[in-house]
Structures are given as C-alpha cells and as structure tokens.
Amino acid sequence: MDSRAKHKRQFISFPAELHETKRRFYDIAGFPCVVGAIDCTHVRIVCLDRNNAVAFINRKQFYSVNV
Fold first, then answer.
1. Is residue 45 part of a domain?
2. Domain, as residue range, for 45
3. For labelling, which of 5, 14, 17, 21 has a CA lying 20 to 30 Å from the CA of 49?
4. What is the total count of domains within the chain?
5. pTM strictly above 0.85
6. Closest CA relative to residue 35, chosen from 52, 18, 53
7. pLDDT at 15
C-alpha cells in the first residue's frame, strides 16, 4: 500500500446522506450521481520540460502543477 493511502480517512470523507447530496449536486449544476468534489490548488514550479512548457502554464500565466 502506498504510504499516503493509509492517511486517506484523515483527509477524505463521504457525506452521510448520499442520496440527498446527489440530488443537491444535480439541482445546482445538473451533474448526475455526484457525491462530492475535490478542491485543488496550483503549486508554482520551475518548468524543466521546455518541450511541453505550455502544458504547465496556468490561467495566471505562471508555471504550476494542479494538485
């Protein structure tokens, strides 16, 4: 097992009322069968891959990785 996976319960949780959560996501955005969402952030990096540099430029025009 990946050493990070053993911490999943500390950081990942599911709603108690899955049916209600699915209904609310659908009502708000029209997404069927959604029970949650993950918030991400861009971490600034030094781009070492000049061949694919454009793939690492975010909407604010700096190099980053979405985590």
1. yes
2. 14-66
3. 5
4. 1
5. no
6. 18
7. 83
